[in-house]
């Protein structure tokens, strides 16, 4: 198993800085996700760890092995890095059976046939494809093909598994069940995982820690509950979960909702213009009284909840009430809101 250390890594493509001063230590056996919008540099980071891309600057270590160093000018190719990798596209060989696909890395390593067959079968059972060894990829569903790719990435027992949006091509239900399968396999093997995704739900549900990236820059690294409850900035708050952003004005040690006398402690010690942030599930709505008065403008039925839009002093605020009766508070109703777990950020 392996610890991964990424120190001051940059990747420039001409004028584009795809990855800007990336620093991360992934502990032995840890599951870390790199999360961010499309184009933020996730794949480039993973490809540098894998050795498919060479860092412009910085050092990468896998275990004790320095696999890439701009200072020493050293660079180990992917096959010298003790890694397994799974991509978004299934990338299994169509002309090979499931067993041949999974056994290929062992064939390259010249593992003898009998041992190869045993290890392939064991791996196929781990990914619940024990009965499918003689099939060809076109005889499998997308989810099954992706499990073949996973088994092939793991068969040589690498210290590090790298996954780049492995579930993005699967439908929603399968995507969710595969999350748990991948996690179960990771726990069983105790392998270190770096998992790239743009899906915050996936990152939250699977990871020990999440690295949130935007425009090539790491915005925050933390456990899922940390980045959700204590986002480092507006970008992280916006990308993880739902959030209301409300223009605020700092007066003394309070931040006021712009145009109102409703205020909250200036926890972030912002000066001048601030943004008040509150998640829809942290707002209590009542008909009888509360911190501020508003008017319901729209509402949307979500089945398990009602999603309201409430106008408060000209600000449009989203409130999600679990188990609410859609008819109880019609559009136009006067309501009162109470904010809990308010966050304060710099306006920009
Ligand atoms: N080979 C390349 N040549 C030039 N630009 C690239 C190359 N690969 C990626 N980029 C650019 O680097 C940025 C990050 O890309 P990528 O790592 O693929 O993002 P993500 O995986 O987060 O969607 C993007 O602006 C992308 O256009
Ligand atoms: Mg990508």
Automatic annotation (TrEMBL):
Annotated ABC transporter domain residues: 4-240
A molecular function (GO) term: ATP hydrolysis activity
Gene Ontology CC entries for this record: ATP-binding cassette (ABC) transporter complex, substrate-binding subunit-containing
Highest taxon of the lineage: Bacteria
Species the sequence originates in: Phascolarctobacterium succinatutens YIT 12067
UniProt-recorded name of the protein: ABC transporter, ATP-binding protein
Cited InterPro entries: AAA+_ATPase, ABC_transporter-like_ATP-bd, ABC_transporter-like_CS, ABC_transpr_MalK/UgpC-like, Mo/tungstate-bd_C_term_dom, NA-bd_OB-fold, P-loop_NTPase, Transp-assoc_OB_typ2
Keywords assigned by UniProt, alphabetized: ATP-binding, Cell membrane, Membrane, Nucleotide-binding, Translocase, Transport
Coiled-coil residue windows: none
Listed Pfam families: ABC_tran, TOBE_2
């Amino acid at each position: 198993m392996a610890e991964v250390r990424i120190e001051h890594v940059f990747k420039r493509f001409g004028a584009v800085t795809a990855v800007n001063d990336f620093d991360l230590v992934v502990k032995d056996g840890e599951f870390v996700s790199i999360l961010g919008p499309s184009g933020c540099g996730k794949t480039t980071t993973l490809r540098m760890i894998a050795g498919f891309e060479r860092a412009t600057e910085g050092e990468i270590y896998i275990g004790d092995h320095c696999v890439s160093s701009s200072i020493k000018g050293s660079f180990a190719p992917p096959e010298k890095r003790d890694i397994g990798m799974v991509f978004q596209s299934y990338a299994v060989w169509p002309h090979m059976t499931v067993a041949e696909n999974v056994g290929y890395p062992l064939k390259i390593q010249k593992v003898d046939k009998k041992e190869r067959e045993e290890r392939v079968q064991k791996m196929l059972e781990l990914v619940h494809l024990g009965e499918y060894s003689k099939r060809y990829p076109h005889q499998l569903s997308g989810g099954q093909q992706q499990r073949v790719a996973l088994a092939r990435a793991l068969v040589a027992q690498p210290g590090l598994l790298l996954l780049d949006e492995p579930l993005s091509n699967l439908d929603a239900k399968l995507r969710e069940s595969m999350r748990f399968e991948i996690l179960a396999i990771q726990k069983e093997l105790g392998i270190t995982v770096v998992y790239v995704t743009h899906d915050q739900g996936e990152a939250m549900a699977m990871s020990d820690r999440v690295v949130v990236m935007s425009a090539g820059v790491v915005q925050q690294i933390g456990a899922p509950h940390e980045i959700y409850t204590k986002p480092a900035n507006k970008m992280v708050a916006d990308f993880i979960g739902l959030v209301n952003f409300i223009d605020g004005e700092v007066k003394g040690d309070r931040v006021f909702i712009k145009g109102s006398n409703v205020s909250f402690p200036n926890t972030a010690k912002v000066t001048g213009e601030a943004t008040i942030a509150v998640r829809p599930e942290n707002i209590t709505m009542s008909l009888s009284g509360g911190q501020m008065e508003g008017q319901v403008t729209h509402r949307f039925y979500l089945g398990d909840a009602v999603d309201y839009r409430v106008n408060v002093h000209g600000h449009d605020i989203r409130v999600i009430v679990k188990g609410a009766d859609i008819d109880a508070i019609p559009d136009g109703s006067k309501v009162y809101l109470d904010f809990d777990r308010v966050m304060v950020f710099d306006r920009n």
